[in-house]
């Protein structure tokens, strides 16, 4: 059954299967937890469970994964299931047919600009929520990165999630529940998702065909997040690709992308790995004085990470940070 493909979220899955089996589904739910731990996949699997055409699977609160409805949801073509994220919003912004010349390039440029869910996207999705389900099943509207909604967008959504039509479900997904409007939170039934175990992170990376070295280390440095594990693997590859020596900090920094946004993300990922390695060492330290100094070092590298978000050169900040590793004896690899 497809819910079984979701690793490391047994508690949330058991709850969702119980809702699907009973049919007692709230009008709006909030899936919250760290990034890259399966919230979006769980939302889509729940939509499949509610709309599956196999009565035996539905009796178990699950889906068959192979019927016409399940396959349509997997392909993003089901008329009653909408998954709205930054890609969905970028497609709305590109004012041309997807088969037009240059569409993909224009879409990629538009996607790179996306930072907030805007009011026009919410209006588009709320209009769909008012349409009757074509197959007699559930209308499911999934909104990813809900914490990025602009104020006007959040206000436009309020009345629609307060009293949705019959057999209509809103699922809001967020990695930052604390920054969302209280009026939105009060209208959604919350469901927590937990960080994944390193073994589950590695298994997901392997299953999805992620091509990278040091998967065990990447999973260990992931903090329970698949997306952070991918970034950690790329950071480890960047650090391992430069020969150790006095020029190592400069070499690693020189390997960053010249595109500011990409280089900034790469530099932060390298610092995330260093911070995780230092934190692991700090938790094992038994000498109180050494542990105190390690805490100061942790704060210093967190400050470097914050500095990268400002209008400074990511390469310069990263090189400076890596030079400060001398004498710390951190075991990264």
Give the tags.
alpha/beta; single chain; five-stranded parallel sheet; 54% helix
Written description of the protein model:
The protein is α/β, with parallel strands linked by helices and 333 residues long. The protein folds into two domains: 2-192, Rossmann fold; 198-323, no CATH class. 54% of the residues lie in helices and 8% in strands. The chain contains 16 helices and five strands. It has a five-stranded parallel sheet with strand order 2-3-4-1-5, sandwiched between helices. Strand 3 (139-143), helix 8 and strand 4 form a beta-alpha-beta unit. Helix 7 runs parallel beside helix 8, helix 12 packs across helix 14 (260-284) and helix 14 runs parallel beside helix 16 (314-323). The longest helix is centred in the C-terminal third of the chain and has 25 residues, at 260-284.
